[in-house]
Amino acid sequence: MMCTVCGCHDHDHDHDHRLIAVEQDILGKNDAYAADNRRLFASQGVFALNLVSSPGSGKTSLLVRTVAALKDKMPVAVIEGDQQTEHDAERIRATGVAAHQINTGKGCHLDAHMVGHALEHLPTLSGGALFIENVGNLVCPAGFDLGEAHKVVILSVTEGEDKPLKYPDMFAAADLMILSKSDLLPHLRFDTAACVDFARRVNPNIEVLTLSAESGEGFAGWLEWIETRRAHCD
Amino acid sequence: MMCTVCGCHDHDHDHDHRLIAVEQDILGKNDAYAADNRRLFASQGVFALNLVSSPGSGKTSLLVRTVAALKDKMPVAVIEGDQQTEHDAERIRATGVAAHQINTGKGCHLDAHMVGHALEHLPTLSGGALFIENVGNLVCPAGFDLGEAHKVVILSVTEGEDKPLKYPDMFAAADLMILSKSDLLPHLRFDTAACVDFARRVNPNIEVLTLSAESGEGFAGWLEWIETRRAHCD
Fold first, then answer.
1. Is the CB of A156 less than 8 angstroms away from the CB of B56?
2. pLDDT by 10-residue block (mean), chain A, 234 residues
3. Nearest CA of chain A to the CA of B179: how many Å?
4. How many CB atoms lie within 10 A of CB A19?
5. Which helix (H) or strand (E) is B218 found in, with range?
6. How far apart are CA B133 and CA B222, in angstroms?
7. Is B152 among the domain residues?
């Protein structure tokens, strides 16, 4: 019922030492599980992406369109993370692509151990791509390596351009920022140039793509990004 | 760097007992601080609301319009929670209303102790209203009582109607769900009736208001809700 990531211990000095010990222990174990996942992906030539964002940024719609476009070109599968429901995995499976749902219950992010177990439920993806959709949360998933090649942060243009400054850890951890729901731009006051500037203040090397999973605008660039990065990881 | 709320310990039995002890300790202390805040609010006749949502749901725009409408009728002030930046407090202050910004750093929610200290920076609000804008996060703030009269969950219609089922703890903890950004409904496939049905599955008593801080649609109902509930708390 509390997050040690939140710095609660700054306000509650009594259990500083216990919190720090528990945090270091959990992160250390997560890193070991993440290294196991990464070794497995490398041995099978699997390109794994960890998709992170707020709830409702359109991660699942993005993935539905993405796997539909890729599935005849390479093996693909999806791991879905949510507190509750099997909805997202069902949406992926409707495309004919394998998906495994992780329900985290009270949990606010996936960890590498959960992902390792989820892999047991999916086909081997030799030479293919694995998409891991994290729990919708712009804070907690930032600190957890799942063994992915890249974290991809999705920010819908309805959320406002200031989010990279307000949630900097996530944008610092990601290699790519996708500005999603671009079909809604005509109805919003969203300053794309300012958003990119804010993201690069916290992460000078972050790449940026703008797209709509609804209209398909910008999708070719995203598929090309996947193809190029995947070739790199072979 | 980890959230004990997330159930990591289900996967990592070694530190179960430490985690549970730390969680109980922190929640117990938070509840004591929340009780202090609640006593203070009661003694001064302050009506306090805890606004929770995903990042980018429009909480600050909602508050800017709300405090502008209320400030000549009653004392009002705002506590803003974000990981970083003073932007939101500045937006509130531009209306002439007092605001105090809490930056949580790596933290993913406000706690009652932070709010107690923030009150030291605000004028006394005898007979007035205090709005606490939590960190944008549909998971972690659910478990933390700040001493508020009500949690109000804001869900922007761009986020999709399934969120109450996917993040049920937050919708169970709230007394009111505000469906925000209703001006965008003509451009979206968002099923309002389904969303309300999903919210009531996890919280049969939740009230629902639909509004736009952009167009002002539905705002009179929100101001009336505040007035009615505030009268109740006198």
1. yes
2. 40 57 86 98 97 97 98 97 97 98 95 97 96 97 97 98 97 98 97 98 98 98 96 70
3. 13
4. 23
5. none
6. 16
7. yes
Residues 6+ away with beta carbon under 8 Å from B227:
none
Who among B14, B111, B138 is closest to A8 (CB)?
B111
Could you tell me if B166 lies within 8 Å of chain A, comparing CB atoms? yes
Give how far the C-alpha of residue B18 lies from the chain's centroid of Cα atoms, to the nearest Å.
Answer: 30
Question: For B74, phi and psi rounded to 5 degrees?
Answer: -160, 160
Which tokens sit at A2? Answer: 């509390």
Q: Which pair of tokens denotes residue A189?
A: 């006051």
The residue among B12, B14, B24, B26 with the most chain A CBs within 10 A of its CB, best to mutate, is B26
- Overall number of domains in chain B: 1
Residue B172 belongs to some domain of the structure: yes
Name the nearest CA neighbour of B95 among B73, B122, B70. Answer: B70
A108: tokens are: 């606010």
pTM score, two decimals? 0.91
State the ipTM, two decimals: 0.88
Q: Are B164 and B182 in contact (CB under 8 A)?
A: no
Instruction: Tally A–B CB contacts below 8 A.
Output: 220
CATH number at residue B64: 3.40.50.300
Neighbours of B109 (CB within 10 A): 28
Indicate the residue of A15, A139, A158 with minimum beta-carbon distance to B25: A15
Q: Is residue A172 part of a domain?
A: yes
Closest chain B residue by Cα to residue A143: B1
B50 — alpha (psi -120 to 50), left (phi > 0) or beta? Answer: beta
Joined together, the tokens standing for residue A137 give: 């949360």
Residue B188 structural domain: 16-233
Q: Do A11 and B158 touch (CB under 8 A)?
A: no
Assess if residue A7 is contained within a domain.
no
